[in-house]
# Entry
Amino acid sequence: MRSIWNGAISFGLVSIPIKLVNATENHSIHFRQIHLADGGRIRYRKVCELDEEEVSGGEIGKAYEDADGTMIPITDEDLAQLPLPTAKTIEIVAFVPADEIDPLQMDAAYYLSANGVPAAKPYTLLREALKRSNKVAVAKYALRGRERLGMLRVVDDVIAMHGLLWPDEIRAPEGVAPDSDVTVRDAELDLADALMDTLGEVDMDSLHDDYREAVEELIAAKASGEAVQPSESKDSGGGKVIDLIAALESSVRAAKKSRGEGEGEAESEEDMADVHPIKKKTQQKSTPQKSTPKSTGTKKSTASTAKKTTQKKTTSKSTSSAASSKGTSSANSAKKQTSSGSRSTTKKKTAAPRKRASA
# Structure
Protein backbone atom coordinates (compact mmCIF):
# COMPACT_ATOMS: atom_id res chain seq x y z
CA MET A 1 0.00 0.00 0.00
CA ARG A 2 1.20 3.49 -0.85
CA SER A 3 2.05 5.73 2.10
CA ILE A 4 0.53 9.20 2.29
CA TRP A 5 2.74 10.60 5.08
CA ASN A 6 6.18 9.85 6.54
CA GLY A 7 7.19 10.76 10.08
CA ALA A 8 7.80 9.25 13.51
CA ILE A 9 5.94 8.25 16.65
CA SER A 10 7.23 10.09 19.71
CA PHE A 11 6.93 7.68 22.64
CA GLY A 12 8.67 9.50 25.49
CA LEU A 13 12.32 9.55 24.49
CA VAL A 14 11.72 6.75 21.98
CA SER A 15 11.29 7.75 18.34
CA ILE A 16 9.73 5.22 15.93
CA PRO A 17 10.00 6.03 12.20
CA ILE A 18 6.69 5.14 10.52
CA LYS A 19 4.72 5.46 7.33
CA LEU A 20 1.05 6.44 7.30
CA VAL A 21 -1.20 4.31 5.08
CA ASN A 22 -4.93 4.66 4.46
CA ALA A 23 -6.80 1.87 6.27
CA THR A 24 -10.09 2.35 4.40
CA GLU A 25 -11.21 2.79 0.81
CA ASN A 26 -14.35 4.14 -0.78
CA HIS A 27 -16.31 1.77 -3.04
CA SER A 28 -19.08 4.22 -3.87
CA ILE A 29 -20.01 4.48 -7.56
CA HIS A 30 -19.32 7.95 -8.91
CA PHE A 31 -21.29 9.54 -11.76
CA ARG A 32 -20.35 12.21 -14.28
CA GLN A 33 -22.54 15.13 -15.26
CA ILE A 34 -23.54 15.18 -18.93
CA HIS A 35 -25.49 17.36 -21.31
CA LEU A 36 -28.84 15.63 -21.82
CA ALA A 37 -29.19 16.91 -25.37
CA ASP A 38 -26.06 15.29 -26.83
CA GLY A 39 -24.46 13.33 -23.95
CA GLY A 40 -21.42 15.57 -23.78
CA ARG A 41 -19.62 15.68 -20.43
CA ILE A 42 -20.01 18.78 -18.28
CA ARG A 43 -16.72 20.08 -16.84
CA TYR A 44 -16.01 22.81 -14.36
CA ARG A 45 -13.34 25.35 -15.15
CA LYS A 46 -11.57 27.66 -12.70
CA VAL A 47 -12.29 31.19 -13.86
CA CYS A 48 -11.21 34.45 -12.25
CA GLU A 49 -14.17 36.65 -11.29
CA LEU A 50 -12.39 39.86 -12.29
CA ASP A 51 -11.16 39.18 -15.82
CA GLU A 52 -13.42 36.09 -16.44
CA GLU A 53 -10.44 34.14 -17.80
CA GLU A 54 -9.58 30.52 -17.03
CA VAL A 55 -6.67 30.15 -14.57
CA SER A 56 -4.19 27.26 -14.39
CA GLY A 57 -3.24 25.49 -11.16
CA GLY A 58 0.15 27.23 -10.93
CA GLU A 59 -1.55 30.62 -10.82
CA ILE A 60 -3.86 29.71 -7.95
CA GLY A 61 -3.00 30.49 -4.32
CA LYS A 62 -4.97 30.53 -1.06
CA ALA A 63 -6.46 33.33 0.97
CA TYR A 64 -8.66 33.83 4.01
CA GLU A 65 -11.94 35.67 3.44
CA ASP A 66 -12.65 38.19 6.16
CA ALA A 67 -16.14 38.94 7.48
CA ASP A 68 -16.44 41.98 5.18
CA GLY A 69 -15.39 39.97 2.12
CA THR A 70 -11.76 41.11 2.08
CA MET A 71 -9.33 38.44 0.85
CA ILE A 72 -6.17 38.03 2.98
CA PRO A 73 -3.53 36.07 0.97
CA ILE A 74 -1.76 33.27 2.87
CA THR A 75 1.29 31.61 1.32
CA ASP A 76 2.85 28.22 2.00
CA GLU A 77 5.91 30.02 3.38
CA ASP A 78 3.72 31.79 5.94
CA LEU A 79 2.34 28.47 7.16
CA ALA A 80 5.78 26.81 7.20
CA GLN A 81 7.09 29.45 9.62
CA LEU A 82 4.39 28.70 12.20
CA PRO A 83 5.54 26.73 15.31
CA LEU A 84 4.10 23.25 14.71
CA PRO A 85 5.97 20.60 16.72
CA THR A 86 3.83 17.80 15.27
CA ALA A 87 4.64 18.64 11.64
CA LYS A 88 6.43 15.31 11.15
CA THR A 89 5.71 13.62 14.47
CA ILE A 90 2.83 11.68 15.99
CA GLU A 91 3.26 12.83 19.60
CA ILE A 92 1.65 10.53 22.19
CA VAL A 93 0.28 12.62 25.06
CA ALA A 94 -1.58 10.01 27.17
CA PHE A 95 -2.77 6.41 27.52
CA VAL A 96 -6.46 5.98 28.42
CA PRO A 97 -9.07 3.17 28.46
CA ALA A 98 -10.75 2.75 25.10
CA ASP A 99 -14.23 3.44 26.49
CA GLU A 100 -13.16 7.00 27.37
CA ILE A 101 -13.06 7.87 23.66
CA ASP A 102 -16.45 9.05 22.44
CA PRO A 103 -17.34 7.25 19.16
CA LEU A 104 -18.68 10.58 17.90
CA GLN A 105 -15.08 11.76 17.67
CA MET A 106 -14.02 8.94 15.32
CA ASP A 107 -12.84 10.11 11.91
CA ALA A 108 -10.57 8.61 9.23
CA ALA A 109 -8.53 5.45 9.97
CA TYR A 110 -4.89 4.76 9.09
CA TYR A 111 -2.33 1.98 9.47
CA LEU A 112 1.08 2.82 10.92
CA SER A 113 3.89 0.87 9.25
CA ALA A 114 7.43 0.63 10.63
CA ASN A 115 9.71 2.55 8.28
CA GLY A 116 12.89 0.53 7.97
CA VAL A 117 14.58 -2.27 9.91
CA PRO A 118 15.71 -0.11 12.89
CA ALA A 119 12.08 0.84 13.53
CA ALA A 120 10.91 -2.78 13.97
CA LYS A 121 12.08 -3.13 17.59
CA PRO A 122 10.52 0.05 19.09
CA TYR A 123 7.41 -0.48 16.92
CA THR A 124 6.93 -3.97 18.40
CA LEU A 125 7.57 -2.65 21.89
CA LEU A 126 4.80 -0.05 21.60
CA ARG A 127 2.41 -2.58 20.07
CA GLU A 128 2.90 -5.14 22.85
CA ALA A 129 2.66 -2.45 25.54
CA LEU A 130 -0.72 -1.37 24.15
CA LYS A 131 -1.91 -4.99 24.06
CA ARG A 132 -0.94 -5.71 27.65
CA SER A 133 -2.35 -2.50 29.08
CA ASN A 134 -5.72 -2.79 27.27
CA LYS A 135 -5.48 0.95 26.66
CA VAL A 136 -5.27 3.24 23.67
CA ALA A 137 -2.84 6.08 23.08
CA VAL A 138 -4.06 9.64 22.52
CA ALA A 139 -1.75 11.55 20.18
CA LYS A 140 -1.42 14.80 18.26
CA TYR A 141 -0.20 14.96 14.68
CA ALA A 142 -0.22 17.30 11.69
CA LEU A 143 -1.65 16.35 8.30
CA ARG A 144 -2.66 18.44 5.28
CA GLY A 145 -1.77 21.76 6.88
CA ARG A 146 -3.48 21.41 10.24
CA GLU A 147 -2.89 19.80 13.61
CA ARG A 148 -5.15 16.90 14.43
CA LEU A 149 -6.02 14.56 17.28
CA GLY A 150 -5.59 10.80 16.98
CA MET A 151 -6.07 7.51 18.82
CA LEU A 152 -3.60 4.61 18.47
CA ARG A 153 -4.75 1.04 19.04
CA VAL A 154 -3.68 -2.46 18.00
CA VAL A 155 -5.41 -4.27 15.12
CA ASP A 156 -4.03 -7.82 14.73
CA ASP A 157 -0.25 -7.20 14.62
CA VAL A 158 -0.46 -3.62 13.35
CA ILE A 159 -0.78 -0.29 15.13
CA ALA A 160 -3.75 1.60 13.72
CA MET A 161 -4.53 5.27 14.20
CA HIS A 162 -8.00 6.80 14.13
CA GLY A 163 -8.26 10.49 13.46
CA LEU A 164 -10.35 12.17 16.14
CA LEU A 165 -12.36 15.35 16.06
CA TRP A 166 -11.41 17.93 18.65
CA PRO A 167 -13.83 18.01 21.61
CA ASP A 168 -15.10 21.47 20.62
CA GLU A 169 -16.04 20.10 17.18
CA ILE A 170 -18.70 17.81 18.68
CA ARG A 171 -22.06 19.53 18.79
CA ALA A 172 -24.30 19.17 21.84
CA PRO A 173 -27.54 17.26 21.09
CA GLU A 174 -29.80 20.14 22.07
CA GLY A 175 -33.36 19.97 20.79
CA VAL A 176 -32.90 16.49 19.34
CA ALA A 177 -34.60 14.36 22.01
CA PRO A 178 -38.43 14.10 22.04
CA ASP A 179 -40.07 17.12 23.66
CA SER A 180 -42.92 15.29 25.36
CA ASP A 181 -42.54 12.92 28.30
CA VAL A 182 -42.83 9.34 27.08
CA THR A 183 -43.53 6.41 29.40
CA VAL A 184 -42.24 2.99 28.36
CA ARG A 185 -43.96 0.00 29.94
CA ASP A 186 -42.11 -3.04 31.24
CA ALA A 187 -43.91 -5.26 28.72
CA GLU A 188 -42.55 -3.15 25.87
CA LEU A 189 -39.03 -3.31 27.30
CA ASP A 190 -39.31 -7.10 27.65
CA LEU A 191 -40.33 -7.42 24.00
CA ALA A 192 -37.48 -5.12 22.94
CA ASP A 193 -35.03 -7.29 24.90
CA ALA A 194 -36.49 -10.40 23.27
CA LEU A 195 -36.03 -8.84 19.82
CA MET A 196 -32.41 -7.94 20.63
CA ASP A 197 -31.72 -11.50 21.85
CA THR A 198 -33.35 -12.97 18.73
CA LEU A 199 -31.36 -10.81 16.34
CA GLY A 200 -28.24 -11.68 18.33
CA GLU A 201 -24.81 -11.14 16.81
CA VAL A 202 -23.76 -10.84 13.18
CA ASP A 203 -20.66 -11.64 11.19
CA MET A 204 -19.53 -8.21 10.05
CA ASP A 205 -17.83 -9.73 6.99
CA SER A 206 -21.24 -10.93 5.76
CA LEU A 207 -22.63 -7.38 5.50
CA HIS A 208 -22.46 -5.72 2.09
CA ASP A 209 -23.81 -2.73 0.18
CA ASP A 210 -27.04 -3.87 -1.51
CA TYR A 211 -27.61 -0.48 -3.13
CA ARG A 212 -24.19 -0.45 -4.79
CA GLU A 213 -24.81 -3.94 -6.20
CA ALA A 214 -28.17 -2.80 -7.58
CA VAL A 215 -26.51 0.22 -9.24
CA GLU A 216 -23.85 -2.05 -10.79
CA GLU A 217 -26.57 -4.34 -12.19
CA LEU A 218 -28.41 -1.31 -13.57
CA ILE A 219 -25.26 -0.06 -15.32
CA ALA A 220 -24.52 -3.52 -16.76
CA ALA A 221 -28.09 -3.87 -18.06
CA LYS A 222 -28.03 -0.44 -19.71
CA ALA A 223 -24.61 -1.09 -21.24
CA SER A 224 -25.87 -4.31 -22.85
CA GLY A 225 -29.07 -2.68 -24.09
CA GLU A 226 -31.38 -4.73 -21.89
CA ALA A 227 -34.67 -3.36 -20.61
CA VAL A 228 -34.51 -2.34 -16.98
CA GLN A 229 -37.39 -3.62 -14.87
CA PRO A 230 -38.35 -1.37 -11.95
CA SER A 231 -38.01 -3.10 -8.61
CA GLU A 232 -40.89 -3.26 -6.18
CA SER A 233 -40.34 -0.99 -3.21
CA LYS A 234 -41.30 -2.35 0.16
CA ASP A 235 -43.46 -0.22 2.40
CA SER A 236 -41.42 0.32 5.55
CA GLY A 237 -44.32 1.92 7.34
CA GLY A 238 -42.38 5.10 8.01
CA GLY A 239 -44.28 7.98 9.48
CA LYS A 240 -47.21 5.84 10.71
CA VAL A 241 -48.32 5.60 14.32
CA ILE A 242 -48.39 1.88 15.05
CA ASP A 243 -49.28 -0.49 17.84
CA LEU A 244 -45.85 -0.81 19.45
CA ILE A 245 -46.53 -4.11 21.22
CA ALA A 246 -47.85 -5.73 18.04
CA ALA A 247 -44.92 -4.39 16.02
CA LEU A 248 -42.41 -5.80 18.48
CA GLU A 249 -44.14 -9.19 18.54
CA SER A 250 -44.18 -9.32 14.75
CA SER A 251 -40.51 -8.30 14.63
CA VAL A 252 -39.54 -11.10 17.02
CA ARG A 253 -41.42 -13.67 14.92
CA ALA A 254 -39.86 -12.36 11.71
CA ALA A 255 -36.37 -12.49 13.21
CA LYS A 256 -36.89 -16.06 14.40
CA LYS A 257 -38.21 -17.06 10.98
CA SER A 258 -35.21 -15.53 9.20
CA ARG A 259 -32.88 -17.51 11.46
CA GLY A 260 -34.82 -20.77 10.95
CA GLU A 261 -36.15 -20.89 14.49
CA GLY A 262 -39.63 -22.17 15.30
CA GLU A 263 -40.31 -23.57 11.82
CA GLY A 264 -42.21 -26.57 13.28
CA GLU A 265 -44.51 -24.42 15.35
CA ALA A 266 -47.94 -23.88 13.82
CA GLU A 267 -49.10 -20.34 14.02
CA SER A 268 -52.82 -19.72 13.91
CA GLU A 269 -54.40 -16.52 12.70
CA GLU A 270 -55.47 -15.73 16.26
CA ASP A 271 -51.83 -15.79 17.40
CA MET A 272 -50.73 -13.36 14.71
CA ALA A 273 -50.88 -9.75 15.80
CA ASP A 274 -51.68 -7.27 13.06
CA VAL A 275 -49.90 -3.92 12.99
CA HIS A 276 -52.50 -1.23 12.53
CA PRO A 277 -52.74 2.52 13.03
CA ILE A 278 -54.06 3.64 16.40
CA LYS A 279 -57.45 5.30 15.95
CA LYS A 280 -58.96 7.72 18.43
CA LYS A 281 -62.23 6.56 19.88
CA THR A 282 -65.06 8.91 18.93
CA GLN A 283 -68.63 8.62 20.14
CA GLN A 284 -70.74 7.80 17.15
CA LYS A 285 -74.28 9.15 17.05
CA SER A 286 -76.88 6.51 16.34
CA THR A 287 -78.89 7.37 13.25
CA PRO A 288 -82.40 5.96 13.11
CA GLN A 289 -83.00 3.63 10.23
CA LYS A 290 -85.83 4.43 7.94
CA SER A 291 -88.52 1.78 7.95
CA THR A 292 -89.37 0.43 4.55
CA PRO A 293 -93.11 -0.10 4.08
CA LYS A 294 -94.14 -3.54 3.05
CA SER A 295 -95.79 -3.90 -0.34
CA THR A 296 -96.71 -7.59 -0.18
CA GLY A 297 -100.40 -6.84 -0.46
CA THR A 298 -99.98 -5.07 -3.76
CA LYS A 299 -97.74 -7.82 -5.15
CA LYS A 300 -100.27 -10.51 -4.24
CA SER A 301 -103.20 -8.64 -5.75
CA THR A 302 -101.24 -7.99 -8.94
CA ALA A 303 -100.22 -11.65 -9.18
CA SER A 304 -103.79 -12.87 -8.73
CA THR A 305 -105.04 -10.42 -11.32
CA ALA A 306 -102.39 -11.65 -13.79
CA LYS A 307 -103.51 -15.26 -13.27
CA LYS A 308 -107.16 -14.39 -13.87
CA THR A 309 -106.26 -12.48 -17.01
CA THR A 310 -104.24 -15.44 -18.33
CA GLN A 311 -107.09 -17.89 -17.72
CA LYS A 312 -109.60 -15.61 -19.42
CA LYS A 313 -107.28 -15.23 -22.42
CA THR A 314 -107.27 -19.01 -22.92
CA THR A 315 -111.03 -19.14 -22.92
CA SER A 316 -111.24 -16.29 -25.42
CA LYS A 317 -110.39 -18.67 -28.26
CA SER A 318 -113.91 -20.08 -28.23
CA THR A 319 -115.81 -16.93 -27.57
CA SER A 320 -114.06 -13.76 -28.60
CA SER A 321 -116.81 -11.35 -27.73
CA ALA A 322 -117.31 -12.80 -24.28
CA ALA A 323 -113.55 -12.90 -23.68
CA SER A 324 -113.19 -9.28 -24.60
CA SER A 325 -115.94 -8.22 -22.22
CA LYS A 326 -114.56 -10.41 -19.44
CA GLY A 327 -111.06 -9.18 -20.15
CA THR A 328 -112.29 -5.61 -19.88
CA SER A 329 -114.09 -6.28 -16.62
CA SER A 330 -111.11 -8.17 -15.19
CA ALA A 331 -108.80 -5.33 -16.18
CA ASN A 332 -111.07 -2.86 -14.44
CA SER A 333 -111.11 -5.01 -11.33
CA ALA A 334 -107.31 -5.28 -11.45
CA LYS A 335 -107.04 -1.49 -11.61
CA LYS A 336 -109.39 -1.20 -8.64
CA GLN A 337 -107.36 -3.71 -6.66
CA THR A 338 -104.08 -2.03 -7.60
CA SER A 339 -105.35 1.41 -6.66
CA SER A 340 -106.73 0.09 -3.38
CA GLY A 341 -103.38 -1.59 -2.66
CA SER A 342 -101.45 1.59 -3.41
CA ARG A 343 -103.83 3.58 -1.16
CA SER A 344 -103.21 1.15 1.68
CA THR A 345 -99.48 1.39 1.08
CA THR A 346 -99.64 5.20 1.13
CA LYS A 347 -101.54 5.06 4.41
CA LYS A 348 -98.87 2.79 5.87
CA LYS A 349 -96.10 5.18 4.74
CA THR A 350 -97.77 8.16 6.35
CA ALA A 351 -98.50 6.19 9.49
CA ALA A 352 -94.90 5.09 10.02
CA PRO A 353 -93.44 8.49 10.96
CA ARG A 354 -96.30 9.06 13.43
CA LYS A 355 -95.39 5.81 15.21
CA ARG A 356 -91.73 6.88 15.44
CA ALA A 357 -92.72 10.31 16.75
CA SER A 358 -94.94 8.78 19.41
CA ALA A 359 -92.19 6.33 20.40
